[in-house]
Amino acid sequence: PSITRGVTVEIPKVSWEDIGGLKELKKKLQQAVEWPLKHSAAFSRLGVSPVRGILLHGPPGCSKTTLAKAAGHAAQASFFSLSGAELYSMYVGEGEALLRNTFRRARLAAPSIIFFDEADVVAAKRGGSSSGSTTVGERLLSTLLTEMDGLEQAKGILVLAATNRPHAIDAALMRPGRFDLVLYVPPPDLEARYEILRVHTRGMKVDVDVDLKRIAEDTELFTGAELEGLCKEAGIVALREDISATVVCNRHFQTVRKSLKPALSREEIY
Ligand code: ATP
Fold first, then answer.
1. Whose CA is nearest to atom 2 of ligand 1?
2. Coiled-coil intervals in this record (predicted)?
């Protein structure tokens, strides 16, 4: 990927099959992303306006970023990735300039996806400060709104945003023509955990005694990121035990499982 300060561009390599579970969600995203980017002429012909912005929300480590990338891969779109926190931390005016510049580059490189991680930082509710001066967040938000409204004429550009705090997002962004599709990305249920474990052991040599179904049952509240970590760590444990090991065994997975606690609690799942 090419990296200019604060933004990376690439055509992502992740595909839908690399994401375990979330069948319905993947289907919805596929329609909302692939169709308008690949068939923008068909939409104009019928006078149908496609979705311009999609907000993905849900707890950390549950594949919001990966989903956005898989959508980009499927649509073979240039994927511009921006971090809300990084934009926010830039010097006065720099964040807005980077936003405008990214939209400009995305128009030139269309079909494109502009992805905002930690979107709540740039799109936070306006405080209505009484001093009359605008804050960094307000200026970024107003730039983002202007750029998104400008997409009316542009074809083949879609804005995706991810957040763990959907309630912090300013209502102005939720109007039609902006983020008109809001999707909750939940932590994985039993079946999804099994599929995630399958994805992350695909390239590993695992012993026949490894029962991924049992591990899935035993990892309630684990996020996709934590399950990925569990698989990697099991491999390390096997090598630590015997550097000439040829397979990763059930006991290695169990050792790691026992040492881990999920970061999510039941209350955090909404
Ligand atoms: P954050 O809110 O912290 O940015 P996120 O929801 O965007 O998190 P990702 O960055 O997409 O989560 O996922 C983190 C890691 O976890 C990825 O490397 C991915 O491989 C793995 N992962 C998460 N969910 C899944 C899943 N459903 N299937 C396969 N891997 C997953």
1. 60
2. none
